[in-house]
Amino acid sequence: MRNYAWLLLIIFLFPSCTEEPEKNRLLEATINGQLYTFNGIARKYNDYTAGQKTGIEYRVFNNEFNSLSIEAYDDTFTKVTFTFPEFTATWKLDLGGGRSLTYNAVSGQFRILGTEHGNLRGDFSFKVKNIADPLDSLMITDGYFDIFLEESDRMF
Questions:
Q1: Containing domain of residue 76, as a range?
Q2: Cβ-count burial of 10 within 10 angstroms (0-12 exposed, 13-18 middle, 19+ buried)?
Q3: Are 129 and 136 in contact (CB under 8 A)?
Q4: Would you state the pLDDT for residue 23?
Q5: Residue 2 clears pLDDT 80, i.e. is over it
Q6: What residue spans of the chain are helical by DSSP H?
Q7: Within a domain: residue 70?
């Protein structure tokens, strides 16, 4: 009985070793001189057509009020640097009251630096223009991400 009490004490006092470690979610960029830091999500889709691998799609984004989204597709399986228009990027700025401004990339670069311990790392910088007013543009610079990579396959 005494050993049973010690066992219960150990179980309750020490955290479980099976707990999943916290996943990286760093997505940050300087947007028109202001640093933004987000909880990012990174996804990689391996595309297959008739059983043959046909391409890889990368998505890096966040789901917050002000949102940043970057997508790139590689059908060569070798690209790590995507120069506009080889990628798309969108910056949505929440103005409050249900209003927002949407900006799309018009130049720049998105680069994958590699994967390490299940994380996708990379950097980016680009110019974005307001879709409703092409005279309204912003510079997104010093962009960096280090995010746990979620992978899945898509069959076509």
A1: 21-155
A2: exposed
A3: yes
A4: 86
A5: no
A6: 2-13
A7: yes
Identify whether 130 is part of a domain: yes
Copy the structure tokens of residue 83: 């120069």
Q: What is the Cα–Cα distance from 61 to 138, expressed in whole angstroms?
A: 18
Distance linking the first and last C-alpha atoms of the chain:
61
The answer on pLDDT for 123 being more than 80 is yes
* Predicted confidence (pLDDT) at residue 10 exceeds the cutoff of 70: no
Positive or negative torsion for Cα 65, 93, 144, 154: positive
Q: What is the pTM of this model?
A: 0.84
What pLDDT does residue 3 have? 60
Q: Is residue 85 part of a domain?
A: yes
- Chain-centroid distance of CA 68 in Å reads 9
Distance CA 40, CA 66 (A): 12
Cα-Cα-Cα-Cα torsion 29, 61, 90, 125, nearest 10 degrees, comes to 30
Q: What percent of the chain has pLDDT over 90?
A: 81
Answer yes or no: is pLDDT of 114 > 60: yes
- Tokens matching residue 37: 């830091």
Burial of 126 (0-12, 13-18, 19+ CB in 10 A): buried
